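Training component of the fellowship. As part of building independent skills, the fellow (R.M.) carried out the full modelling exercise for a liganded target. The chosen ligand was protoporphyrin IX containing FE. The inputs are recorded below so that the supervisory panel can assess the work.
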Amino acid sequence: MSSGVGIVGVLVVLYLTNFAYRLFRNVNAAKSIGLPFLVYPIDPSNIIWLLTSVPLRPWLKRILPAQIWKRLTLTIYGWEFYEKRRPFEEYAAPQGNQKSFLIASCGSLELHTADPIVATEVLRRTNDFKMPPLTGLLLGQFGHNVLTTNGERWAKQRKVVASVINERISKTIFDSTVCQTTGMLDELLFVGTDRERGSAESTKMFDMIKQITIHVLSEAGMGVKAPWRSKDGEKLRSGFKMTYIEACKVVMESVTGPIIIPTSILLNWPSWLPGYRKLKQLGIAKHEFPMHTEILLNQERQRIWDKKTSSGQSNIMSQLLQAAEEQENEAKALSKEELNGNLFLFTAAGFETTANTLSYAIVLLARYPRWQEWLFEEVDALMSTDVSVSPEYSSVFPRATRIMAVMLETLRLYPPVVHVLRTNETPQELMTSEGMISLPANSSVIINHIALHLDPDVWPDVNRCSDPSWVHTDNNELPDESTFRPSRWINPLGSARPMYQPPKGCFLPWGHGPRVCPGQKMGQVEFVAVMLKVLQRHRIDAVPLIAEKPREVEQRLDGLLSNSVPKMTLIMDGIYDAGTTGGVGMRLTSRK
Ligand code: HEM
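Fellow's submitted model of the complex:
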């Protein structure tokens, strides 16, 4: 007994000594680097803290004294969204550098930065600053892919992936999105409260937006038939419990955590334990998802074999297969595991990011309706008055500059990816705006998108001359960089480029450098297509709650925007899954 206690005692002492050693080592490293630093006697990257601190955030904020909370919050995942530039102004600037600071803790040394030079350097040097292993754990469930790998393995996959996302795919995405959005509008207006006048109210609009993005990725990505109404769509295969799209939805919704639970445990989850129904569903989805992918791949192989794809059908899977088969050198071709991994990744990386950007834009347009008037001028110039005439991708998309401006402004203030993280296995010299620094091995560099996107040296008053006349009458208490003002993205007429190009490293919603998001154009095409269709005949606003005054509606929407939660991507709390959360009532009103 006493020897057992002794062993436990020795282990505890060793653990604490290791903690103390790492803290001491990181503080010394921070001092020698010369950047501002904060000391934390905890390990913010500890997996238990990572998982528990996010749900505990509201409670910790309530119970902790303000001074402690203000410091502790910087160790909780996603703090960038809540704290904006405060830590840079309050802690870093007084120590002599307002763009970067270090956190010296009992974990790894962390460099938090809103320095465009550091951001571009780190994202450019993919061999020195690598994707961390946690990404692989969450997103490599169905095979390693372009996001979860580094070095040569990444380079090989990236080359194939980049070659398949091309203009043919953009056209497919555009047409598919127009079709899905028409389906959404038909459903909304069919059950609409005021069908005669073409108006409708629903709490499910954001769920429907999510459905658009998942259907588009299924159709344009995997060639799965996904008409808006499921009765006309994919049939349940014999021997399966879920269709491909159902399995896809369940898997994607669990990507932030439960997905790492092994399938066999999920399938045998005891019914008396909490979360039984959801975890069991996830088990089925995880089990069936790769089987569906395999069937779809075989069908596509057969189609290629039969040369049916030459009839113009173009989806990511067919392009990936053809690209893989065109590689004569086997070492350059994607393995079966990589093919499956990348097909999963396209859906995982493209679905929520695009859905959330659309949802934020809709809430922002409802909150600031005058920007809808600004968009109507463009939409009316680009779209036929006859709703049954489909817009043509190649002529409409390049001219939709105001809609793109709304997308960029939405991504500036509410980027789905609030930071990107890289680690360096070996010591690295790194250029910063204040000179070179030496980072010790195994440091973490966290590039803070939110702080970069609010930089007061870059964003205030850009392109004021492009503002509509009513902007000057706005009585806005917020500084311009924190204000939703899409016209900042429109250059004056006669400029070489129609749209504002921010200085290098200052606007990173899609990342930067060799690993920049390959789905950037896909997301843009989808965004533009949804907005064109929704605004073609309607304006959007929020349905007031009982006895709610207009100013109170605005305050509620402000609350919705600021109560966002950084999960895998930034999400407004309670807008999806209306059946459980109640959703947010939105109204489409006919404007013609
Ligand atoms: C508004 C929509 C989107 C946003 C804001 C977004 C954002 C990002 C960001 C920030 C990264 C870089 C992550 C890092 O460097 O750590 C990234 C990478 C990636 N994205 Fe997107 N994304 C969007 C849409 C899409 C779509 C539609 C797809 C594909 C269908 C896609 C596929 C990918 C892939 C495969 C990577 C990994 C690239 C690599 O590591 O080489 N994304 N995305």
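The panel noted the following from the submitted structure. The longest helix spans residues 2-33. The CA atoms of residues 13 and 439 lie 29 Å apart.
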